[in-house]
TrEMBL record:
<protein>
    <submittedName>
        <fullName>Uncharacterized protein</fullName>
    </submittedName>
</protein>
Length: 61
């Protein structure tokens, strides 16, 4: 079963939102609630996923 969720974050940076989502998803995966996850954050500078590496708020990898 798949689900799509839309959230509006009240955080200062894309990096904060990414870390928050990663933490939540990793906890759910560790608890056996989900088997996999993917997210895409729509930021002013572009799209940031769980695989992106950020430096100073910018995607570097």
């Amino acid at each position: 079963m798949k689900a799509e969720i839309t959230m509006d974050f009240n955080v200062a940076s894309t990096g904060e939102a990414q870390e928050m989502l990663k933490g939540l998803c990793e906890k759910l995966r560790a608890d056996g609630v989900i088997s996999a996850y993917h997210f895409a954050i729509q930021a002013e500078t572009g799209t940031v996923t769980e695989k992106c590496i950020l430096e100073e708020g910018k995607v570097i990898a």
